[in-house]
UniProtKB/TrEMBL annotation:
Record's keyword terms, sorted: DNA-binding, Transcription, Transcription regulation
Residues in Cyclic nucleotide-binding domain copies: 16-136
InterPro entries in alphabetical order: cNMP-bd_CS (IPR018488), cNMP-bd_dom (IPR000595), cNMP-bd_dom_sf (IPR018490), Env_Response_Regulators (IPR050397), HTH_CRP (IPR012318), RmlC-like_jellyroll (IPR014710), WH-like_DNA-bd_sf (IPR036388), WH_DNA-bd_sf (IPR036390)
Organism superkingdom: Bacteria
UniProt xrefs under SMART domains: cNMP, HTH_CRP
Protein name as catalogued: Crp/Fnr family transcriptional regulator
Residue ranges occupied by any HTH crp-type domain in the UniProt entry: 150-226
Pfam family, one: HTH_Crp_2
Transcription regulation as UniProt keyword: yes
Source lineage: Bacteria, Bacillati, Actinomycetota, Thermoleophilia, Solirubrobacterales
Length: 233
């Protein structure tokens, strides 16, 4: 498969681009540049100039924000097919978060200038992107609403279920059975769930005693993903 065909297939898996047809995807792929990052490498920092958006080909990354007192908060995790830095497509505001790789990361980068030129030349792409971004905003609002009404246990179980789904999407040959390895820390799970680390840790210990998960350093193995649904309400 050619590099161009590979880029088109990757773009087709990205929610922001999923509504685009093959011709539009080819136009976007033509301006995409391959990028590689080592594990634990800073891709960009909060406050940096915002001029490039990225699509993950392989590996994982996370978005974090730093508080004035030095604490960091994990906002999101990204894996193959995920998209980050997308606001660079529309303006040149400073980065709102720091992005760092968790393991070796391969991505394709698209400069804001290239995307804006495509949007000017192909108004139909603009409309499709607005619709896709609108869906992403609704999903974010729904997630915030769930976090407002769910218990800590329910929120943590929901985050784990979502991570399991993503991990299975990354390796579809594994099917829907068997252990699922999640490369993530307790602290990140707590922050994604909107809870304290102590509360998340206590619930993860409950799941471990029940045989649903096994914890390791910087990773969690989910043995019984279906059992997580018993804690979601």
């Amino acid at each position: 498969m050619s590099t161009a065909e590979d880029a088109v297939q990757l773009l087709a898996r990205v929610p922001v681009f999923e509504t685009l047809g093959s011709d539009d995807l080819a136009r976007v792929a033509a301006v995409a540049v391959p990028r590689r990052f080592a594990a634990d490498q800073i891709i960009f920092r909060e406050g940096d100039a915002s001029d490039t958006c990225y699509i993950v080909r392989s590996g994982h990354a996370r978005a974090v924000r730093e508080h004035a007192d030095g604490r960091t908060i994990t906002l999101a995790h990204f894996g193959p097919g995920d998209f980050f830095g997308e606001l660079a497509m529309f303006d040149s505001e400073r980065r709102s978060a720091t992005l760092e790789s968790l393991d070796q990361l391969e991505a394709v980068a698209i400069t804001g200038d290239d995307m804006r030129r495509l949007l000017r030349e192909h108004p139909d792409i603009s409309m499709k992107l607005v619709m896709a971004l609108g869906r992403r905003l609704r999903e974010a609002n729904e997630r915030l609403s769930r976090q407002s009404f769910q218990t800590v246990q329910s929120r943590v179980a929901t985050v784990l279920s979502q991570l399991v789904t993503r991990a299975r999407d990354e390796t579809p040959t594994n099917g829907d059975e068997g252990d699922v390895l999640l490369v993530i820390t307790q602290s990140d799970i707590a922050q994604l769930a909107g809870s304290s680390r102590e509360s998340a840790s206590r619930f993860l210990a409950v799941l471990e005693r029940a045989g649903v998960v096994t914890q390791g350093r910087g990773k969690i193995t989910v043995h019984d993903p279906a059992a997580l649904q018993r804690y979601v309400y």
